[in-house]
């Protein structure tokens, strides 16, 4: 059984991080700041932001039911994804295993970091087999990537199969729950206390309606979060993002309203798609989008672009031949898509 220390890249385990001016005085009351070479004018944006985003984390901790020390905040989830590679995988030596198809950034970051990426095909209904995943692992497999609800298929990955991986695999397991706010399933972030090698990803970009401010989250055991904090850029979340996120997080009822509206619209849209002669199958979804198998995805996609309507063409993705991925929009936007598709011939 590998310990956490055996999973971390030795240079990262040993790394002494950059110590910022603001880290060094902490614990004292101060009112004259002549330590960071900032300009005293142009308040409040003249000052460096809190490198550990403490105020923001205290609000997120309450909403997500985890401790502040179990939260990492990144410039989108993409920063956390990249940090997983930079902390755990040695370029040219280690590998990772991931469900296929899934979110494209896991592979892009593997390629950037020169780490072998081992995709393991889901079955034709996008279900994962834990045994198949485990069979793809060897002694150099550091990380297993699971996305649930999965992108682009939309379905929740079977909980029993995920738990089998959690108990049988002695490396890092990442579960990306970017879409969990749209699902009734119990989120895995509540399991981080029990599992020191589990990392769960969340984002402000989907249900929280904040893709523009770039704020992603990773929840994990304190030791893993401390590693991420050591490796990240010191001021990775800017002041404007921290402020805007605080405002939004103080108003979670708005988000609940959006989610309910989108779920209603989703059920209306999937029903309507099933009635379209050019739609062959609508896959079950737990997210704010759905995957639909069409008669000819490429030409329908091109036709929609002509009409100024953009959907995601997944035609060339594993198991997604002739599939379009449709995000749920406003009632008006969804209506425009349906009207265009009803005129397609
Ligand atoms: C959209 C999405 C994200 C969000 O990424 P951000 O960088 O936080 O915007 C993460 N994971 C998956 C699977 C997604 O589909």
Can you describe what's shown?
This protein is α/β, with parallel strands linked by helices. The chain has helices at 4-7, 10-14, 21-24, 54-64, 77-88, 105-112, 130-135, 159-168, 222-231, 239-249, 252-275, 297-306, 331-343, and strands spanning 71-74, 95-100, 116-121, 141-147, 172-176, 198-203, 216-219, 279-282, 289-294, 312-313, 323-327. The strands form two sheets. Strands 1-7-6-5-4-2-3 form a seven-stranded mixed sheet, with helices on both faces. Strand 2 (95-100), helix 6 and strand 3 (116-121) form a beta-alpha-beta unit. The radius of gyration is 22 Å and the shape is globular. The relative contact order is 0.13. Pyridoxal-5'-phosphate binds next to helix 5.
Task: Using brief descriptors, characterize the structure shown.
single chain; about 350 residues; seven-stranded mixed beta sheet; four-stranded antiparallel beta sheet; about 35% helix; about 15% strand; globular; binds pyridoxal-5'-phosphate
Note the total helix count: 13
Instruction: Compute the average pLDDT.
Output: 96
Give the low-pLDDT segments. none
- Quote the beta fraction: 15-25%
Helix % is 25-40%
Cα-to-Cα separation, first versus last residue = 59 Å
- Note the run of SSEs as H and E: HHHHEHEHEHEHEEEHHHEEHEEH
* Major β-sheet annotation: 7 strands, mixed
What small-molecule ligands were found?
A: pyridoxal-5'-phosphate
Number of strands: 11
Structural class by sheet pairing and helices: alpha/beta
Globular, elongated, flat, extended or rod-shaped: what is the shape? globular
Adjacency order of strands in the biggest sheet:
1-7-6-5-4-2-3
C-alpha-based Rg, rounded:
22 Å
